[in-house]
């Protein structure tokens, strides 16, 4: 449990929150949402972010996202309470938003998904930097991700990602040589990160938007500039989803994406994650191409810790 928020200065602004700093110093990853600490400035940022995205969601978002947004009954003017979000979401798919104090190591993140929990950032970006944030905030997580979690097919896809992580950890435990274990696991984790990036974060789907496409990736759904760029810019390559390409395609996070992949439907996406699990099991991801993303030591260790002895 998180420590009490009594006597902690108000404000849950990204990188400027005493509550989060205290939780991290105490080693508390899973926390309660201290709603009383949100300031009017925090609520104002949420309102500005939400109001300017509404027209873009209408034009570019996948219909399932629109349905999910309506289901959640988010207040456009106030930062959401996670307990209210869960009240509407959990009966539909079993998923719940789970407040965290910061970055969740990869295996723990995917294992949360396997158990239908979504690690959720509770801070919100500074009003001076509405457009780019190198780390998630509550707008990205709740307004970008969570509406999709109300859809059964999409939610089941996230659970399957968790199964993929468990398969990767189990397979790593079967490799006797420690250097080879780390080399292969690093390759598999790189492949999983690329797959997640080009689907859950930046995925496109056939639909009724510009170019016969729609957006379902949360990184696009929470970005005022990139959501339109993804479907309308001539600088973006939009190619049919190919698993072989996706797991070998590097990406960079500090600029608009020049290459995006298109799935046919959520059933197609679920099937491709199923193939990903099989490829992990068969060793077909042991030698993917080098390059971004780099695998952090904490993420690698989280998989090694989960591997059976």
Widest β-sheet, arrangement of strands = 4-3-6-5
CATH superfamily: Aromatic amino acid hydroxylase
CATH topology (fold) name: Phenylalanine Hydroxylase
Overall average residue pLDDT: 93
Detailed description of the structure:
This protein is of the alpha/beta class. It has one domain (18-306): Aromatic amino acid hydroxylase (Phenylalanine Hydroxylase, Orthogonal Bundle). It is built from 13 helices and six strands. It has helices at 18-25, 40-60, 63-72, 82-93, 106-114, 138-145, 152-173, 178-201, 218-221, 224-232, 243-246, 266-282, 297-306; strands spanning 96-100, 117-121, 204-206, 213-215, 237-240, 259-263. The chain has a four-stranded mixed β-sheet with strand order 4-3-6-5. Strands 1-2 form a two-stranded parallel sheet. Strand 1, helix 5 and strand 2 form a beta-alpha-beta unit. Helix 7 runs parallel beside helix 12 (266-282) and helix 8 (178-201) runs antiparallel to helix 12 (266-282). The model has no long low-confidence stretch (mean pLDDT 93).
Tags for this model:
two-stranded parallel ribbon; four-stranded mixed beta sheet; 6 strands; about 10% strand; alpha/beta; globular; Phenylalanine Hydroxylase; about 300 residues
